[in-house]
Amino acid sequence: MTDSADAVVSLYLRHAAAYDQQRGRKLMEAHWLDRFLSRLPATPSVLDIGCGMGEPIARHLIERGCAVTGIDSAAPLIALCRKRFPQQDWQVGDMRELALGRRFDGLIAWDSFFHLKPDDQRRMFPLFRAHAADGAALLFTSGPGHGEAIGSFEGEPLYHGSLDPSEYRALLNATGFAVVEHIVEDPNCGGHTVWLAQRTT
């Protein structure tokens, strides 16, 4: 499975146009995004980690007054973000090397963070902390339990990894975040397993 994990960036680079076409614009995530937004100040800064082509999630945030900084490893997807939302800040980069030198009111890693191998996921939590302002909200998706799974995109294997829920809680606690809400395979959100946390220290 390691080979599949290492190939995720290449997969999105090669099939960026197909992903843009296939990713639905219907926002089943809206109720989670609105819960996230309810914990942010007015006109907040939001870091979208693994932002893809900016639709529909970043669009939803921008339309609600957020100043969005998006980071994604796939340059063709970032190019689409820049074309669609030129007033926002879009950067090509690997989330595992996140070092923007600033803090945000909110951080989101929706359907992106779970493409990392478990050890890489563990190393992300200090990076979340380093980019989170006091009281910042953090929203991300994971698998329902510890393990690895291989999906398919454009006929090629697509890696997904997850830690155990107890380990996510421990990592959040160790980096100063408290879990606000956690739902496993939310039936109202396409079966996503969702975490909403907030920086407390």
Automatic annotation (TrEMBL):
Alphabetical UniProt keywords: Methyltransferase, Transferase
List the InterPro entries: Methyltransf_25, SAM-dependent_MTases_sf
**Gene3D superfamilies for this protein:** Vaccinia Virus protein VP39
Signal sequence bounds: none
Q: Which GO terms describe its biological process?
A: methylation
Domain (Methyltransferase): give its ranges. 46-130
Q: Name one GO molecular function term.
A: methyltransferase activity
What is the protein's name according to its record? Methyltransferase domain-containing protein
> To which species is this protein native?
Bosea lupini
